[in-house]
Amino acid sequence: MAGDTVITVIGNLTGDPELRFTPNGAAVANFTIASTPRNFDRASGEWKEGETLFLRASVWREAAENVAETLKKGMRVIAQGRLKSRSYETKEGERRTSMELEIEEIGPSLRFASANVSRNQRSGGNFGGDQFGGGYGGQQQPGGYNAGAGYGNQGGGYSGGNTGGQQGGYNAAPAAPAQAPQAAPAPQAAPTPQAAPAADPWSQQSGGNYNWGSGDDEPPF
């Protein structure tokens, strides 16, 4: 939608995505991304971490199911979407507003890990809008990452563990800071699906005919 703020966030999941379905049957996955900035201190010659941002995120429809099957707690992801404000009322009757990221594209970060991409089969070969094809699965296993891949976090906010990498791993991610109980936000409304592009880039088979050089006229030399 015009006027929405589009941002890209890189961080770690604080928990497994929670998949649910609306009364109309639309799938939605909710989760929290923890993003910790790192800045270089010229005085000390060392990298220092800033305050961690905990951003609530949601993704819809088929992409939601792909996310729920692929991404797990502690994984480092790259997510792009639109910031939305959501108002709710606490048990004490206080009116509050929170910011949420409505995700359009998301995938695992390959900075400290590797992943294999496989396309999900769909009738009609639809590859458009907010649907992206395929989980990121090593042998299509839950969690999606290849076994043995290092999940270093360079000392990020979710680096508790001895898994390979730089100063920490992806496993044993701590929970977000405890907060006072609050009333649940109003039910989410599914965003309007985007139109699918004219052609599915996955539908072209290897060695397909693109009519390159197949005409009668040869280029002059």
UniProtKB/TrEMBL annotation:
Keyword DNA-binding set for record: yes
Keywords: DNA-binding
CDD domains: SSB_OBF
UniProt-listed PROSITE patterns: SSB (PS50935)
Stretches the record annotates as Disordered: 119-221
Compositional bias ranges of the Gly residues kind: 125-168
Pfam families (UniProt xref): SSB
Listed Low complexity bias regions: 169-199
NCBIfam families linked: PRK07772.1, ssb
Alphabetized PANTHER family for the sequence: SINGLE-STRANDED DNA-BINDING PROTEIN (PTHR10302)
Official protein name in the record: Single-stranded DNA-binding protein
Protein's organism: Rothia nasimurium
Subunit structure: Homotetramer.
